[in-house]
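Whiteboard transcription, Tuesday session. T.W. wrote the C-alpha cells on the left side:
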C-alpha cells in the first residue's frame, strides 16, 4: 500500500493519479480496494480545490464544435451574420454580440456557459 496523505502539490497529485491508474483493474474483494477509494477521494478533493477547469474560450469552443461536426465557416453565417463577420469573430477582430450568442445557442450550439464567462 502506498503512503497515503493529503495531496498538497502538483507532483503528489500526479503520483496519486498514476497509482489510481495502476489500481483501476483490480478485482472486487482485492485488499487494495480501500487504497483506490481513498486515493480517489483525495484526488477529487485536490481537483475541487486546486485545479481550475475553467470554462472554454468562446471562440475556441466554436472552433472545437466546428471541427467535431465537420462544419465550415460558411455554416456559421446564419448564426453570426455575413462571412466577413464570421471571419472577424473567429480571428478575434470582432467580439461576439449578444444576438450572435443567442443565435448560436438556439441553433443547438449550447455555448451559453462559455460565452457568459468571457464578456
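and on the right, the sequence the group agreed on:
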Amino acid at each position: 500500500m502506498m503512503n497515503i496523505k493529503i495531496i498538497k502539490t502538483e507532483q503528489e497529485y500526479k503520483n496519486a493519479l498514476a497509482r489510481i491508474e495502476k489500481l483501476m483493474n483490480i478485482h472486487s474483494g482485492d485488499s487494495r480496494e480501500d487504497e483506490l477509494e481513498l486515493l480517489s477521494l483525495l484526488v477529487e478533493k485536490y481537483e475541487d480545490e486546486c485545479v481550475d477547469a475553467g470554462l472554454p474560450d468562446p471562440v475556441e469552443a466554436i472552433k472545437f464544435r466546428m471541427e467535431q461536426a465537420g462544419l465550415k465557416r460558411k455554416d456559421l453565417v446564419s448564426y453570426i451574420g455575413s462571412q466577413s463577420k464570421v471571419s472577424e469573430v473567429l480571428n478575434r477582430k470582432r467580439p461576439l454580440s449578444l444576438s450572435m450568442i443567442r443565435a448560436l445557442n438556439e441553433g443547438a450550439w449550447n455555448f451559453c456557459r462559455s460565452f457568459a464567462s468571457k464578456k
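Someone added at the bottom: The radius of gyration is 22 Å.
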